[in-house]
Amino acid sequence: MPANGNHPLKLQFGLINHEGRYLTAENFSFKVNASAPSLKKKQIWTLEQDSQDIQVVYLRSHLGRYLASDKDGKVTCEADGHNSDCRFLIVAQSDGRWALQSEQHLRFFGGSRDYLSCFAQVITNAELWAMHLALHPQANLLSVARRRYAHLSMEDGEIAVDVNIPWGVAALLTLVYMDGKYCLKTCDGRFLSNDGKLLTQSGRATAYTLELKCGKLAFKDCEGKYLSPMGPTGTLRSGRCSKPGKDELFDLEESHPQVVLMAANGRYVSIRQGVSLAANQDDETDMETFQMEIDKETRKCTFRSSQGNYWALVAHGGIQSTATEVSANTMFAVEWLGHKVAIKANNGKYICTKKNGQLLAVSDSVGERLLKVFFSFILSLH
User: Fold this and answer.
1) Mean pLDDT for the chain?
2) Which CATH architecture has domain 258-377?
């Protein structure tokens, strides 16, 4: 589990052929073609790695079926599991494009429009595919080697990789897709150059090809070198390596919304006074900002502080920011009531405020003591 408690993004992408068309999985008869001019649902593929051989990958369509090729090169997308015909190898090219080779039959996948096959013995332009990531463009970037997150350091004018928790807009990087390459854009609208400088305009030095290694991403610059964190602060720039090692590998993690909560007394919920939560502050700082992490199955939320601890229900209905792991008592149901919310704890009671601002989960019904939600910045809404 990463230090932030976030999960690496499932690598989902579109594959663009030499004619600028996307590989498409049709709903009818599980057929595939390369006819679509843009990336939509039917053009999204999910990469899955083999549990025994990390070099082998499977490509799953939006229908939950897998791309496969038989010995005659016929390509289908009907398989509902990892069989031998679904095993592919990614052969990365110097320009960042991929050739997909059937591991079982050692032939390459390519073609155009309705004429796709996996029968080529050598790689030509027709067998090359560009990867277009299909994800929310804003994400957190985690260094695999340092186990630290990238963020904009305004004082030093660089992207530093030196924080345990990606907090605030400074830790938000936007991946900008341009002609098969990606730029890394900071929250103030600047682009990362391969020398570590931040530029107001994108160009050759700010464009990177994405490479995949062991399920992680590497960013290759225009000189064939790779981004990595350098020095004590982890300044992000290209190093001398022409092959990606652990220092050059990154995870992309989905970013969560971070919110500021105002109680009925007109004051912000805070942990400035200690571990107990109370609505007793008039200004917004990191102490009044909490990260909402939504469980996709239960739709309940956890609230995480900038120190990394979760809100937790404790004895007598108290709410404290003390939990280091997610449990039943850190999960809260959020009921939206216009621009306000009611928050219910695991004891079935709603959170309300005492006269001194202390938060307690002791109310059986929704009254006037609701919390207003102000999104200080929305990192991602998946």
Assistant:
1) 89
2) Trefoil (2.80)
Residue 224, SS3 per DSSP: coil
Domain ranges for the chain, please list them: 12-133, 138-254, 258-377
Name the DSSP letter for residue 375. Answer: E
**Would you call 169 exposed, middle or buried from its count of C-beta atoms within 10 A (0-12, 13-18, 19+)?**
middle
Residue-wise pLDDT tens digits, 115-161 = 999 999 999 999 999 988 887 678 899 999 999 999 999 888 999 99
What confidence tier does 381 reach under pLDDT thresholds 50, 70, 90? Answer: very low
Contact 373, 342 (CB under 8 A): no
Phi, psi of 75 (to 5 degrees): -105, 130
Beta bridge partners of 120: 108
CB 325 within 8 A of CB 319: no
217: β partners: 212, 250
Architecture of the 138-254 domain: Trefoil (2.80)
Cα distance between residue 303 and residue 288, in whole Å: 11
- State the DSSP code for 164: S
Q: Contact at 8 Å (CB) between 227 and 208?
A: yes
User: Residue 204 pLDDT > 60, yes or no?
Assistant: yes
Q: Which fold has domain 12-133?
A: Trefoil (Acidic Fibroblast Growth Factor, subunit A) (2.80.10)
What number is the average pLDDT over the span 287-296? 90
